[in-house]
Amino acid sequence: MPATSDIRLVQLHGWLAAHFGARPFSLQPASADASFRRYFRARLDGESWIAMDAPPEREDSRPFVRVAALLRAAGVNAPRVVAQDLERGFLLLTDLGATTYLAALNPGNVDRLFGDAIAALLKWQLASRAGALPPYDEALLGRECKLFPEWYIARHLAVTLTSAQQQTLAEMLALVVTRALTQPAVYVHRDYMPRNLMVTDPNPGVLDFQDAVYGPISYDLVSLFRDAFVSWEEERVLDWTARYWEKAQQARLPVNPDFSEFYRDFEWMGLQRHLKILGIFARIHYRDGKRGYLEDTPRFLRYARAVAERYRELAPLARLLDQLEQRQPALMGNRK
Q1: Could you tell me whether strands 213-216 and 205-206 are parallel, antiparallel, or unpaired per DSSP bridges?
Q2: Do 237 and 226 form a contact (C-beta atoms < 8 A)?
Q3: pLDDT of residue 22
Q4: Side-chain-side CA neighbours of residue 226 (13 Å)
Q5: N or C of the chain: less Cβ packing under 10 Å?
Q6: Contact predicate 177/142, CB 8 Å
Q7: What is the pLDDT of residues 186-217, one digit of tens each?
Q8: What does the longest C-alpha to C-alpha distance in the chain come to?
Q9: Number of Cβ within a 10 Å radius of residue 275
Q10: In this structure, are residues 193 and 97 in contact, taking their beta carbons and an 8 Å threshold?
Q11: Strand 81-85's sheet: what is its strand order?
């Protein structure tokens, strides 16, 4: 029985005890994420499950249950919901193991593992239908873009943009959002990255999908190849993207028939995601008190600058990022 100081854990233990009956089970932390959800591994008679604790005042578990069903119906290896108590925010899930792509990837297996991830992504996208998931529309994309100036620039860098800089940033973000909205729409996992993919059989196991939406077809590919925690050479990213594009065409997914234009969509979509995550990582640090995420912000600045420098229309954004970087060295220490 857990210590009574953790009331949620006591309640979760009691809920699982009712599900498992009189049989004794063990409960150990499995993982945590950037939200308020926690995961525990429950073991009983040589089997294991994952118990999810999602405080209902902080997290709505209904999208998790709904998207898990959509993924499984599409033939993707997502956890099966064994039991649920949505009012209290408890779920019991099948266990997809403890080995993430992030932990397993190496030069010898990356092509095979990413090949499996692309195959699963194609299944997910082929199952798409309008109305089943919330739209990744202009309003949502715009709200995400605002995280960058609000949390990264103003809160983390403590920079107040001039009127001219504010106008430049607004114009650049509007260009990026407009480009995203021209892409064909499919199911979007929204965080399809190595940390959320498990090495399983069938491979991969897919986690952390509760924020899935219906939107730009290149988004999940960007999440996979331009990751928060590991970077790859541009030539490899280009090659993997081309492999996906060829398979997507064969599967008759609505990708742009011109690969150069598809790759441009991929890069511009990535720019929106990179700037959003800079804001999210700053918010997680300052609002939620979770340390460590800011250490990965230089990776996203490099991603964003590389894209901004490659396209003439984004040159004003590249200059703005250069101006912001001048504030970076003195501010990146152990800020509280």
Answers
A1: unpaired
A2: yes
A3: 78
A4: 30
A5: C
A6: yes
A7: 999 999 999 999 999 999 999 999 999 999 99
A8: 67
A9: 29
A10: no
A11: 26-32, 38-44, 47-53, 90-94, 81-85
Q: Tell me which amino acid residue 110 is.
A: V
Report the C-alpha gap between 14 and 79 in whole angstroms: 22
The residue ranges of every structural domain in the chain are: 7-94, 101-331
Give the whole-angstrom CA distance, residue 227 versus residue 195. 9
Q: Which CATH architecture describes the domain 101-331?
A: Alpha-Beta Complex (3.90)
What whole-number distance in Å separates Cα of residue 138 and Cα of residue 60?
23
Task: Identify any residues that bridge with 188 across adjacent strands, giving them in sequence order.
Answer: 213
Tell me how far apart the alpha carbons of residues 217 and 244 are, in angstroms, rounded to a whole number: 11
Look over the chain and give the mean of its residue pLDDT values, rounded to a whole number: 93
Compute the distance between CA of residue 314 and CA of residue 294 in angstroms, rounded to an integer.
25
| Residue listed under structure tokens 């945590």 | 32
Backbone φ and ψ for 234, nearest 5 degrees, come out as: -60, -35
SS3 assignment for the chain: CCCCCCHHHHHHHHHHHHHHCCCCCEEEEEEECCCCCEEEEEEECCEEEEEEECCCCCCCCHHHHHHHHHHHHCCCECCCEEEEECCCCEEEEECCCCCEHHHHCCCCCHHHHHHHHHHHHHHHHHCCCCCCCCECCHHHHHHHHHHHHHHHHHHHCCCCCCHHHHHHHHHHHHHHHHHHHCCCEEEECCCCCHHHEECCCCCCEECCCCCCEEEECCHHHHHHHCCCCCCCCHHHHHHHHHHHHHHHHHCCCCCCCCHHHHHHHHHHHHHHHHHHHHHHHHHHHHCCCCCCHHHHHHHHHHHHHHHHHHCHHHHHHHHHHHHHHCCHHHHCCCCC
Q: How far, in whole angstroms, is CA 35 from its chain's centroid? A: 12
Single out the residue of 206, 322, 334, 223 nearest to residue 280, CA to CA.
Answer: 223
Task: Give the closest residue to 222 by CA, choosing from 179, 251, 170.
Answer: 179
pLDDT in tens, 234-268: 999 999 999 999 999 999 999 999 999 999 999 99
CB atoms near residue 140 (< 10 Å): 14
For domain 7-94, give the CATH number.
3.30.200.20
